[in-house]
Amino acid sequence: MNDPALSYQEPLAGARPERRHLVVGTGAIAHAHAAAVAAHPRRAAVVSAVDIDARRAEDFAAGHGIPHWSTDLAQALQGRPDLAHICTPPGSHVPLALQCVEAGVPVLLEKPPALSLAELDELLEASERTGVDVSVVFQHRFGAAGLEVRQLLAEGSLGRPLVAVCDTMWYRPPEYFAVPWRGKWEVEGGGPTMGHGIHQFDLLLALLGGWTEVSAMAGRLARDTATEDVSTALVRFDNGALATIVNSLLSPRETSHLRIDTELATVEVEHLYGYSKDDWTITPVPGRESVSDSLVSVTADGQSGHADQVGAVLDAMDAGEPLPVPLREARDTMELVAAVYASAFTGRAVRKGEIVPGHPFYSRMDGTGAPWAESHSLEGASL
């Protein structure tokens, strides 16, 4: 086994330090994290990787030029990395993040951050008690065009938001779910609502602000999973705007589409796994044609992705500021997930703040149980 102990040298006075990153879990998404760090040369480098599979850890380290690899997270944490990227399946996110936080190492945590609000609150308590930051990966918040639209909406340049559509229409064939941890509540926490559409409707929340009420439906229509494969929701926001959200893994023409109609314009972005400036359009109401030029100052042409968020994390670290997308912000998105399931499975609207300790959907996203849980047949398995 490669020695995971990391050498450490204090940076020269006045120099910006190269941040030393640890990747925990070396499966598919870990490659995106390694590439995101590599996009910031001389600012950060992945110096160690950890996985329970020694061969996979070794191959990952070799593929990305990482000097150390290990199967022992506790030993790797002794090297005092500046940031740990948690890239494992969702069921292990909180236990591993807790281990890092208790060791004093800040965390960049893949989505979904936890399997339930109860788990997330456990990690939140540890983070606030120790003063060690945990940031959640919601990379669509950090694309240059998305940041500009967020500013335009916040300052009122586009008028008051009125109605929105947020669709994550993806396709995953039956064999996708052959991976043992997919499609299971106790390991993945949910279906497309929890693990796929969450990126797009997190962007919706970042643009429109707080939500107040959800009415939802969900179904297991075509995939042999314990979780849903489709969900739909109607959401009311604090500012009065209404939005529909659709999360699907059954849609052959894949798209991620977000549309917000305001008093002065329609703002849209359509992409798949990451957007660029060219994916956004602004259609003004008659007489306000100048609004259509609102994104002209955006010069970045890369896709929204992990590199954008890692850059924001490095900026915060250099400035001594809290990491972006802290757990308290991510909790609002996770609470919306829980509310979608609670509404879909109970058949009634759920208000923000309703799901608290003791509520059946606080400790498990399937709460009182999916309505199809007792049936092995997919026919009619929806609510």
Order of helices and strands: EHEHEHEHEHEHEHHHEEEEEEHHEH
Looking at CATH, which topology of the largest domain would you report? Answer: Dihydrodipicolinate Reductase, domain 2
CATH architecture label of the largest domain: 2-Layer Sandwich
β-sheet strand percentage? 15-25%
Description of the molecule:
The chain is of the alpha/beta class. The protein folds into two domains: 19-139, NAD(P)-binding Rossmann-like Domain (Rossmann fold); 141-277 and 327-363, 2-Layer Sandwich (Dihydrodipicolinate Reductase, domain 2), CATH 3.30.360.10. Helix content is 31%, strand content 23%. The protein contains twelve helices and 14 strands. The protein has an eight-stranded mixed beta sheet, with helices on one face. A six-stranded parallel beta sheet has the order 3-2-1-4-5-6, sandwiched between helices. Strand 2, helix 2 (54-64) and strand 3 (68-70) form a beta-alpha-beta unit. The protein is globular and about 60 Å long.
Task: Considering the chains and any ligands shown, give keywords for the structure.
single chain; 383 residues; Rossmann fold; Dihydrodipicolinate Reductase, domain 2; eight-stranded mixed beta sheet; 12 helices; disordered N terminus; disordered C terminus
